[in-house]
Amino acid sequence: MIVGFIPHRTAHAGRDAQPVDQRRDRALEARDHVRLWTLGGIGELLYATWSWSLPRGQDNQGLVELVFDTSSQAADIGFNTAIGVFLLVTAVPVVRRLAAWQTRFAIAVLTDRAA
Question: What's the chain's average pLDDT?
Answer without folding.
Answer: 78
